[in-house]
Write a structure and sequence with these properties.
237 residues, alpha/beta, Rossmann fold, Alpha-Beta Plaits, four-stranded antiparallel sheet, 6 helices, globular
Length: 237
C-alpha cells in the first residue's frame, strides 16, 4: 500500500498517473474533482519533461479547459483511441462495477471509456460499497418527452428525480433542468432496494427509448486506486 498525501483525492490521482501513464500514450481524461487532480498531474509531468508525447481525450468541456490550461495536447476519438481513461466514481461495487454520473458527464465518460481500454478509477474508500445503489443512479435522458421517460424509469422500481441547476445556477434559475454538454437532461434514480444485478438493470435501461445512457459502468474498470487511511491501494479487476 502506497503512502497517501494529506489529500486523498490528490494521492489516488497521482498514484494512478505514476502506475499507469507512460510517455507516448493517449489517455482518456475523466471529469470531476478527483479526475482533475490526475489531469493536472499529467500536465505537471509533461511540463517537467518527466513525461513526453502524452495526449488526452477529454470527457467534458470542463476537463478540456483544465487540460488546455495544463498544456496537455488534446485529440478526438476520430483521431486516436485512448489506452484507458482515468476517472472518478460515485460508487465502486463488487467486481469493480461502478456508478458514475453525479458530475454530469456520464454519456461522454462512457463513450470514451468504451472506446479504449476501460477505466482506471480514482476514489477514496467511502466510495466502496457492498452493493451498488446506496445513492442515486444518474441516467442521461433526451429532453423531448422526458416526462414519459421518467415514468418508464419509475416502472423499473426506482424513484426518478429530474436534476435541476439548483443553488449557484449559472443561468440564475435554480429550477431550470440541468443540461449536459450534449444538451441532455439527467434523471437521478434512487433504487430503495439497491441494485443487486447491475448488468441486468443496464440492459433494462437500454430498452427505454428516451434513456440515452445510464451511470452503470459494468465490466469497464480495469483497476481502482483507492485511498485507505494513510495509504493508497490498487484493486485490479
Amino acid at each position: 500500500m502506497g503512502k497517501a498525501s494529506e489529500d486523498p483525492k490528490r494521492a489516488t490521482a497521482e498514484r494512478a498517473v505514476a502506475e499507469y501513464v507512460e510517455s507516448g500514450m493517449v489517455v482518456g481524461l475523466g471529469t470531476g474533482s478527483t479526475a482533475s487532480f490526475a489531469v493536472r498531474r499529467i500536465g505537471a509531468l509533461l511540463a517537467a519533461g518527466e513525461l513526453e508525447d502524452v495526449r488526452g481525450v477529454p470527457t467534458s468541456a470542463r476537463t478540456a479547459a483544465i487540460a488546455r490550461e495544463e498544456g496537455i495536447p488534446l485529440v478526438t476519438l476520430s483521431e486516436a483511441r485512448p489506452l484507458f481513461t482515468i476517472d472518478g466514481a460515485d460508487e465502486i461495487g463488487p467486481g469493480l462495477a461502478l456508478i458514475k454520473g453525479l458530475g454530469g458527464a456520464l454519456l461522454r465518460e462512457k463513450i470514451v471509456a468504451s472506446a479504449g481500454g476501460g477505466l482506471v478509477v480514482v476514489a477514496d474508500e467511502t466510495k466502496l460499497v457492498d452493493s451498488l445503489g446506496a445513492g442515486p443512479l444518474p441516467v442521461e435522458v433526451e429532453p423531448f418527452g422526458h416526462q414519459i421517460t421518467l415514468e418508464d424509469l419509475a416502472s423499473l422500481g426506482c424513484e426518478p428525480t429530474l436534476r435541476l441547476e439548483g443553488p449557484g445556477s449559472q443561468t440564475g434559475d435554480p429550477d431550470r433542468p440541468y443540461v449536459t454538454d450534449g444538451g441532455h437532461y439527467t434523471a437521478d434514480c434512487l433504487f430503495p432496494r439497491g441494485i443487486p444485478n447491475p448488468a441486468a438493470l443496464e440492459e433494462e435501461l437500454k430498452r427505454i427509448p428516451g434513456a440515452l445512457e445510464s451511470g452503470l459502468f459494468v465490466n469497464l474498470a480495469r483497476a481502482a486506486v483507492v485511498a485507505r487511511g494513510e495509504g493508497t491501494e490498487v484493486i485490479e479487476a
